[in-house]
Design brief:
With 260 residues, this protein is an all-alpha fold. It has helices at 15-28, 36-44, 51-62, 70-81, 86-96, 103-114, 121-129, 134-140, 150-176, 180-183, 205-216, 225-233, 255-259.
Length: 260
C-alpha cells in the first residue's frame, strides 16, 4: 500500500518532492497506466487549483503534443514551476536556518533543503550540528560512538531535545504547584512549652517576704496613689509591698533609702 501524491500547490520548493511522489505512484500503477497519454491524464489529477491547473489547461490547448511525451511534459513542468538555480537558493536558505523551536521541526526543514544539495554525510552532519541549539549541541558532544550518518545523528539530537523540553515543563509545573509536603502543617515532635500564667502571691508570710526581696532587687519606680492606698488597706509595706512590717522598718530598704 502506498500514499498517492499530494496535490501540487505551485510552490517552487515542492516541485522535487511532488515529482518524487508522482514517480512512486506511477510505479505502483504501472500495470494500469501503460501509455504516456494515460500518465499525463493521471498526473493532471494531482495538480491543485490556481497556477497548476492553469498551466495544465494551457498545455492541453496550446501544446497538446506534450500529452503524448511523458519526458517532455515533465521537463516543461520543471521549467515552469522549478527554480532556475535551485541549489544556490537551497544553500542560501540552509545558511540562514537555525533551531529556534523543536529539534524535529528544524530537522525536517533541514532535510527538505538537502534535496537540492550534493553534500557528503560528513558535511551534512557538520552543517546540521552547527545550527542546533547550544544546549543540544553540548549534549551531542558526549555521544559515543559518533553517529556516521545524518539520520542517526538527528535521531539522537531530537531525543535529547525532547527530554530537555519535558524536564523544563516538569520543573516549571513544580514551581507553580507547591507540594503537599511543604504546604501541609507538620506535626510537632518537640515537647510543648508550658503555658505562661499570671503570678499569684502565696499566702505564706515567708514566701511573701521572699517575693518582696525578689521585687526589691529590681529598680523601684514611684508608687501611684492607687497602689499606695491598696498596700495600706491590705496592711502591706508601702516600700516593698511585703507583709509583716511597715515602711519605717522595712528590711528591704537600702542604706541610702534608710538615710532618706
Amino acid at each position: 500500500k502506498y500514499e498517492p501524491p499530494r496535490k501540487f500547490n505551485g510552490k517552487v520548493e515542492q516541485v522535487k518532492l511532488f515529482l518524487d511522489e508522482v514517480e512512486n505512484g506511477l510505479f505502483h500503477e504501472q500495470n494500469t497506466i501503460t501509455t504516456d497519454y494515460a500518465r499525463a491524464i493521471w498526473f493532471s489529477g494531482y495538480l491543485g487549483d490556481g497556477n497548476p491547473k492553469s498551466w495544465w489547461f494551457s498545455v492541453k490547448t496550446q501544446n497538446p503534443a506534450l500529452l503524448n511525451s511523458w519526458g517532455d511534459l515533465i521537463d516543461a513542468f520543471k521549467s515552469h514551476f522549478g527554480e532556475p538555480n535551485a541549489a544556490a537558493s537551497a544553500l542560501r536558505k540552509l545558511r540562514a536556518l537555525r533551531q529556534n523551536g523543536a529539534c524535529s521541526t528544524y530537522t525536517a526543514r533541514f532535510k527538505e533543503l538537502l534535496v537540492y544539495l550534493d553534500f557528503t554525510e560528513a558535511t551534512k552532519i557538520e552543517e546540521y550540528k552547527s545550527r542546533l541549539k547550544p544546549a543540544v549541541r553540548e549534549k551531542m558532544i558526549t555521544v559515543r560512538p559518533k553517529p556516521m550518518t545524518l539520520d542517526a545523528y538527528a535521531e539522537i539530537a531530537i531525543e535529547f531535545d525532547n527530554e530537555m523540553h519535558e524536564y523544563k515543563l516538569d520543573f516549571e509545573s513544580e514551581k507553580k504547584t507547591p507540594s503537599s509536603s511543604s504546604s501541609a502543617p507538620r506535626p510537632s515532635t518537640s515537647t510543648p512549652a508550658p503555658a505562661i500564667t499570671a503570678y499569684v502571691a502565696p499566702a505564706d508570710p515567708n514566701a511573701m517576704q521572699i517575693d518582696a526581696v525578689r521585687h526589691s532587687a529590681r529598680p523601684r519606680g514611684k508608687l501611684t496613689a492607687d497602689e499606695r492606698n491598696r498596700r495600706i488597706a491590705a496592711g502591706l509595706c508601702t516600700y516593698c509591698g511585703g507583709s509583716g512590717h511597715y515602711a519605717n522598718d522595712c528590711p528591704n530598704k537600702s542604706d541610702a533609702a534608710k538615710k532618706r
